[in-house]
Amino acid sequence: MKSASRILNKVKQILHFSTDFKVREVQFFDTQLFITYIAPLTDNNLLNESVIKPLVEYDEQLEGDVCTFIQEQVLANNEVQEQEDINQFVTELLKGRAGIIIDKSGKLLTCDVEKIVVRPIQEPPSSAVIKGPREGFNESIKYNLSLIRHKLPTPDLVIDSFSVGKYTKTQVAVIYLQDIADKNVVKEVERRISKINIDGVVDSYYISAYLQSKPQSIFKQVGDTEKPDILVSKMLEGRIGILVDGSPIVLTVPFILIEDLQASDDYYSQPIKVTFLRILRLIGVVLAVLLPGTYVAIQLYHYKILPTEFLITIMDTTQGIPFTPFTEVLFIVLLFEILYEANLHMPQYMGMALSIVGALILGETAVNAGLVSPPAVMIVALSGLTFYVVPNQASQFSLLRILYVFVGATLGLFGILALSVWVISYLSSFDTYESAYLAPAAPYIKGDMKDFLIKAPLEKMKTRPQSIANNKRNRTRQK
Amino acid sequence: MQKFKKIFSPRKMIIWVSILVLVISFQYTNQPAQSQTQAIVTALAVDQTEDNLIEVSTVVLTPLTASSSKRKVYTAKGLDITNAINHISLQVGKQIGFGQCDIMAMGDKLCEENALKALDYLTRTKRVGRNAVLINFSGDVENFASCIVQLNDNMSLNVAEIINFNREYIVATETNIESFFKGYYGDLGLSIMPKIKISENEDVNGIKLNLEGDSGEESASNSSDSATSGGDSSKSKEVYFVNDGTTSIFREGKKFTEIKPSEIKYINLLQPDNVLGTFVLENVNSNTFKDARLVLDLTNKEMEYKLSFKDGKPTIKYDIELYILIDEIIESGKTENLLHTENWFVDDSVINGLTNKIVENLEVVVSKLQDENIDMIEVYDKFYKFKNKKFTKYLNSLENKEDFLKDVEFEYKIKIHSSY
Amino acid sequence: MRMSYRQASIIIFYMLVAFKVLSLPSLVYQTCKNDGYLAVLIMMVVDAILLWGSLKVLKQAKDKNIYDYVKQYTGSVIAKIFVIALTLIPLIHLGIKTKGLEWFLVKNLYTQFEWFQFAIPVSLVTCYMIYKGIRNIGRVSEFFVWIIVIGVTIIIIKGFGAVDWSFFLPVLSKGIKPIFKAIYDYLAWFGIGGELLLFAGCIDFKNEKKSRVFFYSALAIILVQLVLWSFYGAYGIMASTHNFAISDISQISNANIALDELSWLIVSVWAVAQILHIAIYGYLFCRGLQLIFNIKNDTVATLILFLILILWIFWGEHTIALEKLFLHKSIVWIMIVAQYIIPIIIFAISFIKKKDKKQSDAQSAKSQNIIQSTQNEGDKASNADKSSNLGGGKQIKPKSKQPNKSRGKYAKV
Lengths: 479, 420, 413
Known about the structure:
Chain A has helices at residues 4-14, 44-57, 66-74, 86-94, 141-151, 183-194, 204-211, 228-237, 258-261, 271-300, 308-318, 325-345, 348-368, 374-386, 394-428; strands at residues 21-28, 31-38, 80-83, 97-102, 108-112, 157-164, 170-177, 223-225, 240-244, 250-253, 431-432, 435-436.
């Protein structure tokens, strides 16, 4: 016979006598029941209606074992589980469940009365679209899973759950379409997640760090999205989604670079327009990364490339600038990065005013003071703006830009070319989850060219991309 | 050993190498722009002086100064061109950079001596681009450079563009260093250059420019009238920049004659390039015209030629079709016919008159070319390429191969069409 | 890690074009005058024919490297001699290519240029690519190939406006002798059959499409010929004074000089191709080096190449003109032997022994691990670091299960 009081005391000890741990004593026939719960995590109404009220108001005959009887006949809760272990019982309490300690038998039951406090579903700020769905994920894994289930009402959608983090015990869900996703990739992802040994996980980035083969690289190897429609599209191509409780950002693997050049509303617009936009994005990225470095290189080594009249303009505007071209451009680049960071973190009500001040400082005052030249400001500003045609890669390319400036100053145009070749070579050697990072460009995959730079009409995209490991080639229904 | 491996592990090696590279390259990142450390020359004029020195005048780009001119003229003399350029370098206080040089002008005296004296050095060592415009000029070296500055600054006229326009539309003269070398290294050693005169005497064909100042100082005035810009009381002088289409002919790099613009006009008729031009007919009398002076505008030209050998001598027959418009009619008296629209059609008097004039002039011009062995119409090339065996045989039969042009027979068939 | 057949075709394209559009046109002109393009055309066609033979040998060799392949017929001594001779070709080509690129940059793009401003980027980038393996080189080549073709085409179109087609007349005015003399003198600039054999064990013939090699070879020949016609037709008798055909074509136009200078940016695209050429020849050299000295570690071979490149770029600055160095008769004879005679011998041996080999292969297949495409691009990325990138046929792991047939044509190359 196990005393409920003793068990209760043990639970209180484990919880270090926290004051938010509440107990409600109920007499059920001749058995004493302790209904325990963590107050901030519990939905009081649900607790009262589905647990306390049925127990208190039950007045019919008791048959058989109390624990089984309560579980099967009394409680009006959808998730009643018996816990074998007191530690597991406490863990469930900490997840927002209500626990019932039954006297004499010493059995422990838990019921789901969790109070879910989340943001409402809204359009994610980083993925605004003109056309297409506007719902975005929020911090609750349950809500997020419900959004996905809603879009994929198929029995082939598999959700494998993990608990990660010694203290946070964060729920991590690996989701995939059973007949499409590659089994090896799924295995690899689950293996890596199960091997995570960490104090706590507060954001999906923590998981992402373990999923990457080269976490020290500036290029990310795991995709991310805040929108269910994007996630579902990716899963339909064979990718695997990883949801982390507490984070609105869902990870996807495998990831290839071209994904970031494709926006979600590409699939909701006319193909010709999309083709034009994708080419524009690619040109934008190339310009954004290469422009400042090329400007410095031309100034230092290759002035004869410039048309004479343009050279005169540059000479006029750079006359009297105390810095060398490299220092000048680097100074402006760093200033822009500081402005960007400040803008990101400053309070909203001050944001507008400070942005204007920052722009004025750079745009007008610094030029008038003769610290920097207008061509340099224009080039760096253009480069900085152009990064946001591909916002997901903006920070990576921004770093790369600084490297290009340095190489352009040291080695000139040839250095820039050599660095470009090196970058492509480096990216070509990224193979993660059986997918080549630069696919379908390198290696060239003919079938995937329909959704590379050129966007083919939807009816022509009958097969899944070969750039991503997947099991089923055909998208259409088998006849 | 293990410690050694630990220190020199690949990862650490990358860090060491990166640090080394950073340190070494820091000095390169800290260098100023080339445009600030080099004197950028956009035009260059060279001539030989009376005392056999080389005089060089350069137009150098200068950043914004007190004046509005972005170009300055620097002139120096030296024993040879290297010497002269070094003096200029000292004047400017920077190394001379020829990367932007698009005009290369050579004076008469140097051209008559040997144009290769300057050209070879500049293209081989100083890397003046071979597509830079090459001009022969007569007049003062410094005046020529100053004219370029004046034209650019005050009239927004780029001399290189003027010459290229000439080449495209007025005279079919090759104008760059590359074409000069092509001619020089060809079998005949014949090269041509457009000529520009800088004349202090009034010339109706020229652009009047006001130049002022001494060597090394600003040589161009800021306004188009003759007001001076202050400073020393400078001697303002008027010069005329004459670009009338005169062409200098070189053999083996030395200038030996000039072709007048009027002669060039007829030579162009024998070239494949379709250049424009005008013809003047005097005293035209017909049913339509009475003692009329007609100015005819050539709008289009089709030229074909046939090569053959008659009695072992090369013969070239030109089939020329010209399309003309009557641009201007000046009659001594007023006739009713001028009011009629059909007067714009070219009639037999015009056709015959023009045909005769063209044939006459062609014969005169070609005869001059033959006498002086100037194969501007590439007869040698044509026969060499298309009638190689016979032509080689013919050349071998000559005592002096350079005189081949003298025996060539020219035949002309001219057809005139109205452009309407 | 092996490269795909398509990547191999593209690398063949690069190798065929490599030397023909820089200094060779002006060199050949000095001997052949206006028939220079014929010399290049003849040799490119010969090379294209020989490369088919090399590809057949490579296909037969499967996962074996060239040393192991030849050894089974000729014994180790002769095989070693063959490999040494074959390794000399990429070494010579590396020398020409590196110097050619350096001079191209010095004469055209830079006014002041230190030797290490060239040495460091070239050596680091190419050695990195070589270290990462042939698949990496193949992918990078694949990535840039059409950018380069389009860039070169734009340059050619630009030059075509200034071409005087009559320059090519009369054809063969001085007979056929100067053409063969030019071929003999500049043999170091030609050839592909011999060094291609060093790729034995590096190509995955699974998706072999003969039309691909044919297409890229034909493209190379056409592109080179167009460059030559454009170059010769535009510059005429001055062709011998323009050492860098591909860049000088873009400088032809007389009018609007300002825009001409911007065409250097298109020429920069060709500079990228040069880096890839150096990487390809460097890889072949490293591979040969490993086979000769039995170096198992890729890093060691790459480091040796790195040092050679640095030393050559430094030392080569102070040497006699490149043309004199590579025109030396000894170089010509090495090329004749290594690029033409040795490959023909190997073709002949493999052809004769083919039947015998079929029988012995059937027997040995039962006792050996079946060599599947585990070394192909189809392997998991996690295995990439462990296998030898330069070893080609070594360290092959048997596949544990058959590939999933429902996966379709996904070939991770």
